[in-house]
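To whoever is on call:

I kicked off a structure prediction for a single chain this morning and the downstream step that reads the tokens threw a length-mismatch warning. I double-checked the sequence; it's 125 residues and nothing unusual in it as far as I can see. Pasting both halves so you can look.
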Amino acid sequence: MVVIAIAALLIALHSVFSQLSGPKVYGPDDTEIAVSAGDRFSVEVAGEPAGDLHWIVAAPRPDPAVLRPTGAHQARGGAGPVRRLDFEAVRPGRTDLRLVRCRRCSAGAADEPGARTLNFRVTVG
């Protein structure tokens, strides 16, 4: 009985500390991302001061049973504006996440002049 109470307390404390510390933020060089089901995290990329280039989740899109986009927002970084794309790990599995920086962001956005592509392997345990 005591063991069960201690385990429940540890799980509750872990949950509280995870929520207080906020989502983990990964950068362009973090091509392998490992998270747990239910975790929220962000991928931070360079922002565009002029606003004419945008970062999007590109095709092939991540498996929605494993990873779900939850939004994006501008933030202030040490070297200027940054863009954070937010995600939630849905359930265990592995999927690829592809981000593209583009102007028009239509079909073939990765082939636009000035486009940049970032690829991530996301493992949800």
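Update from on-call: the warning came from a stale cache, not from the record. Cleared it. Sanity check on the structure: The first strand starts at residue 24 and ends at 26.
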